Write the C-alpha coordinates for this entry.
Amino acid sequence: MTIVEFWPDYDGALLWDESGERVPLAELSLPPDIVARAARWIAEYDDSKLPWEPTRDEAWLAEGRLLFAELRRELFARGIELQPNEPFWPEPDESSPPGPAR
Protein backbone atom coordinates (compact mmCIF):
# COMPACT_ATOMS: atom_id res chain seq x y z
CA MET A 1 0.00 0.00 0.00
CA THR A 2 1.27 3.46 -0.88
CA ILE A 3 1.72 5.86 2.04
CA VAL A 4 0.95 9.58 1.80
CA GLU A 5 1.44 12.05 4.62
CA PHE A 6 -1.09 14.71 5.65
CA TRP A 7 1.18 17.69 6.26
CA PRO A 8 -0.50 21.08 5.79
CA ASP A 9 1.93 23.84 4.86
CA TYR A 10 2.16 27.12 3.02
CA ASP A 11 1.58 27.51 -0.72
CA GLY A 12 -1.31 25.05 -0.87
CA ALA A 13 0.75 22.04 0.18
CA LEU A 14 -1.27 19.34 1.94
CA LEU A 15 -0.19 15.82 0.95
CA TRP A 16 3.35 14.49 0.57
CA ASP A 17 4.77 11.19 -0.63
CA GLU A 18 7.43 9.09 1.11
CA SER A 19 10.25 10.85 -0.74
CA GLY A 20 9.07 14.26 0.46
CA GLU A 21 7.48 15.30 -2.82
CA ARG A 22 4.20 17.16 -2.87
CA VAL A 23 1.19 15.12 -4.06
CA PRO A 24 -1.40 17.27 -5.86
CA LEU A 25 -4.96 16.42 -4.83
CA ALA A 26 -6.06 16.61 -8.47
CA GLU A 27 -3.88 13.58 -9.30
CA LEU A 28 -5.66 11.28 -6.83
CA SER A 29 -9.11 10.97 -8.49
CA LEU A 30 -10.85 12.24 -5.36
CA PRO A 31 -14.43 13.53 -5.32
CA PRO A 32 -14.46 17.15 -6.53
CA ASP A 33 -16.22 18.42 -3.39
CA ILE A 34 -13.45 17.08 -1.12
CA VAL A 35 -10.74 18.51 -3.39
CA ALA A 36 -12.47 21.92 -3.35
CA ARG A 37 -12.93 21.91 0.44
CA ALA A 38 -9.32 20.84 0.99
CA ALA A 39 -8.06 23.55 -1.37
CA ARG A 40 -10.08 26.23 0.45
CA TRP A 41 -8.93 24.94 3.84
CA ILE A 42 -5.22 24.75 3.00
CA ALA A 43 -5.35 28.20 1.38
CA GLU A 44 -6.04 29.54 4.89
CA TYR A 45 -2.97 27.80 6.37
CA ASP A 46 -0.80 29.81 8.72
CA ASP A 47 1.52 28.58 11.48
CA SER A 48 -0.36 30.84 13.90
CA LYS A 49 -3.40 28.51 13.62
CA LEU A 50 -1.59 25.45 14.98
CA PRO A 51 -2.48 24.06 18.43
CA TRP A 52 0.69 25.09 20.25
CA GLU A 53 0.28 28.76 19.28
CA PRO A 54 -1.63 31.17 21.54
CA THR A 55 -3.47 32.30 18.39
CA ARG A 56 -4.57 28.75 17.49
CA ASP A 57 -7.71 28.53 15.38
CA GLU A 58 -10.01 25.84 16.79
CA ALA A 59 -12.47 26.06 13.88
CA TRP A 60 -9.68 25.67 11.31
CA LEU A 61 -8.21 22.74 13.25
CA ALA A 62 -11.62 21.06 13.54
CA GLU A 63 -12.14 21.37 9.78
CA GLY A 64 -8.67 19.90 9.25
CA ARG A 65 -9.50 16.89 11.41
CA LEU A 66 -12.67 16.31 9.37
CA LEU A 67 -10.74 16.62 6.11
CA PHE A 68 -8.10 14.21 7.40
CA ALA A 69 -10.78 11.62 8.18
CA GLU A 70 -12.53 12.07 4.81
CA LEU A 71 -9.30 12.01 2.83
CA ARG A 72 -8.15 8.94 4.75
CA ARG A 73 -11.34 7.03 3.85
CA GLU A 74 -11.23 8.09 0.20
CA LEU A 75 -7.53 7.35 -0.22
CA PHE A 76 -7.77 3.99 1.57
CA ALA A 77 -10.36 2.93 -1.03
CA ARG A 78 -7.71 3.72 -3.66
CA GLY A 79 -4.96 1.70 -1.98
CA ILE A 80 -3.31 4.70 -0.32
CA GLU A 81 -2.72 4.96 3.42
CA LEU A 82 -2.93 8.51 4.77
CA GLN A 83 -0.73 9.19 7.79
CA PRO A 84 -0.74 12.36 9.92
CA ASN A 85 2.42 14.45 10.34
CA GLU A 86 1.38 15.58 13.83
CA PRO A 87 -0.48 13.87 16.69
CA PHE A 88 -3.30 16.43 16.70
CA TRP A 89 -4.57 15.05 13.38
CA PRO A 90 -6.26 11.74 14.23
CA GLU A 91 -3.91 8.79 14.24
CA PRO A 92 -5.05 5.99 11.95
CA ASP A 93 -5.91 2.70 13.61
CA GLU A 94 -3.40 0.47 11.88
CA SER A 95 -5.17 -2.70 12.95
CA SER A 96 -8.25 -2.15 10.80
CA PRO A 97 -9.34 -0.21 7.71
CA PRO A 98 -11.20 3.07 8.17
CA GLY A 99 -14.89 2.79 8.95
CA PRO A 100 -17.82 4.51 7.27
CA ALA A 101 -18.31 8.26 7.47
CA ARG A 102 -19.99 9.53 10.60
Q: What stands out?
A: The chain has one domain: 2-84. The chain has a mean pLDDT of 87. The longest strand covers residues 2-6.
